Amino acid sequence: MKRNIFLSFRPEFFRPILYGIKKYEYRKRFCKEATTAFLYLSAPVKEVIGLMELGKPIDLTSMQQQYAKNLEVLKRIESSINGREILAIPIESFQMFKEPVPISKLKEIEPKFNVPQCYLNIENFQNVFEFLNKQEKYEKEFINDHKNIYESNFCMTCKAMELTSEFKQKDIQYTSNVKYKIIKSGYINK
To answer: Is omega for the bond preceding 44 within 30 degrees of 0, making it cis?
Structure first.
């Protein structure tokens, strides 16, 4: 069974996840096991917007030898390690809430609940956990098969992803879709 967490994420880096382009999340520390994460977009959004299924983290230092001959991927791996993001967490799927949940609502349910900088075990806040679990959700936006490394995407920054033709096409598609207007961020509803 997967561990349930509450994961903080900066809104400016969300679109590559929503579009299914970003296949990995990079962190300096994370859970050791696969997780189900309630995804919280920090200021200015300040809302929980859905669920991400995340696989078991990959230690990037162990990947250097494997990609010693693929200089493009190796360079990205080393850049990530140098930035102290040494874990690649496979993003397996994302499922959006039909109505995002403002952090103020969670504070009403459990006043001692505080948003973490990185993540926290949401089951330690049982009332919040149960409330978030009851939220109505859309079908999964995507499902990634992580049997193999997505080499074209591995350790790529969000900024680099935003320069791809795939991102530009999906950006037009998603920003014109009414479904995604519920995400209260200038990064989505332009």
So the answer is: yes
pLDDT at 86 over 70: yes
DSSP count for the chain of H helices, then E strands = 6, 8
In a 3-state reduction of DSSP, which class is residue 104? helix
Give the single-character DSSP code of 63. G
Closest among 169, 147, 166 to 156, alpha carbons compared: 166
Say what the pTM is.
0.93
What whole-number distance in Å separates Cα of residue 9 and Cα of residue 18? 12
Are the C-beta atoms of 189 and 183 separated by less than 8 Å? yes
Among all chains, which residue has been given the structure tokens 């350790």? 155
User: Cβ–Cβ contacts within 10 Å for residue 78, how many?
Assistant: 16
Q: Are 175 and 168 in contact (CB under 8 A)?
A: no
